[in-house]
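User: Run a structure prediction on this.
Assistant: Running it now.
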Amino acid sequence: MATNMESAANQRIVENLASRLRRRQVVGSRETALETVLVLRQVVSKARFSNIDQLLGIIRAVGRKLVEAQPKEYTVGNTVRKVLHHIREEYHAASQGIAASKPTFSIATFVSQGQPRKQAAPQKISHETRGVLKENDSDDPDSFSRTLKPVLMEAIQDVLDELETVYDNVSKNAKDHIHSDEIILTIGKSSTVEAFLKAAAPYRKYTVIVADTAPSYSGREMAQSLSSSGISTVLIPDSSIYALMSRINKVILGAHAILANGGMFAITGSLLVATAARAHSTPVVVCSGQFKLTPQWNLYHEYGALDFADPSSVLGFEEGDLVDKVDVVNPYYDYVRPEMIDAYITNDGDHPPSSVYRLIKEAYDDEDYEL
């Protein structure tokens, strides 16, 4: 049985990223996902394995180490699951000598696997790979990895390409969701929402109201960026959200992680916005890449994630008398329930929260839910 991480080079690569994740030197869903893919690509390129189970074991070990280093960055585990899914697909295609067998439609497969992905195009398998894939070859133990690695590297590159183009793919139909003279509310700084709003600007004239998102005040950076792109932008304090909601046509939010039940973790203040929007029957739309889909549930707290920032930014220690009398909580992320969300706009189309379970079923294999 091959060890989980055979080479010292692989160990250094993984330890380096784990250390940076632990120290919060790599933050943000897309950045952590990109770093994870790059590490997995190096690990696979240097790994030695004589059967598919050894390779999957190596990747699982790397995934566990990275997830344990920073459990709050859900895209690390999601990316590992996605790579494992692609590797299994390429292995089955290579071992059978075809890239994609003709799908068989039945009630049983639909219930267990969901609807087949329409864009899944057959992959070309070279003549060298076809028919010569041999596991546990005692005469040449490295023949299996040597034969399979080229197609595995292509599969990992597909995951990397998806991450690099996620903003463009989410924003490509922005003008169909944003109409002229609309007043749109968003909160905080989300790169996906920013790209989405900017993509519609050449086609529509609209106004964006940005809540400043205390205590981080990341909304100020968002408002400045949108305003510099020629979008009519108004910056408001969080306390004015409910008062202005009756004038809002649409709420557009970003997501930190989309959970299996259709809910999401999002920047602090998102629950306030979604609750006010629900009271005024204002539609709430979430822009997010599918790499944020995670097969996990919010089991610990009704209103937020178990990820807290320094409380002194909310209530400083100079307020000595008051600090002794209250417990101050400063969560990084709110939990927004699925019934408060109308639609997810992803790089693979628009989906209601009730369809998230099917997207997760298509993106990951059941055995990888627990790494």
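The chain has 14 helices and ten strands.
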